[in-house]
Design brief:
alpha+beta; 4-stranded antiparallel β-sheet
Length: 138
């Protein structure tokens, strides 16, 4: 589910985050040419924002850029992830390549430079995940 964040003032110049979970309603306010959008958080608390046509246009642009940039991240979590039971690493017998095989699949052949890049990338990702909290599933 998409999450929008809005910030609102809580006295003394402090701000609190309102984590919107859903759009409750939208309506046009014709006398002032504004769009009213009511959003709700997970606890059902609602907030209404009104936007001018110019602000709605700017927000539409920002939201479409956000959606486009997060599509790649979201797509990877939608597709099933293969978790192999085992893997093997070796060297090519007749050519200078590093072989990587998962389970009983056909091995991948990588040039030495590619294998080094892959190794560094795997280590970097593993180090980031090692101490990270497990994400909550909703």
């Amino acid at each position: 589910m998409a999450r929008l964040k809005s910030f609102y003032s809580v006295g003394g110049g402090m701000t609190q985050t309102f984590a919107a979970q859903s759009i409750v309603s939208t309506r046009g306010e014709s006398p002032s040419d504004r769009l009213a959008i009511t959003i709700a958080d997970a606890q059902g608390r609602e907030k209404t924002v009104t936007l001018s046509a110019e602000m709605a246009s700017a927000l539409a642009h920002v939201l479409s850029e956000f959606a486009r940039s997060s599509d790649a991240r979201a797509a990877s979590s939608v597709l099933p992830t293969k978790k192999p039971a085992g893997f093997a690493i070796g060297a090519g017998r007749y050519e200078p390549i590093v072989l990587v095989r998962f389970e009983d699949d056909v091995p991948y052949g990588l040039a030495a430079e590619e294998a080094l890049r892959l190794g560094h990338a795997l280590i970097a990702e593993a180090e980031q995940l090692f101490d990270a909290a497990v994400p909550l599933r909703q």
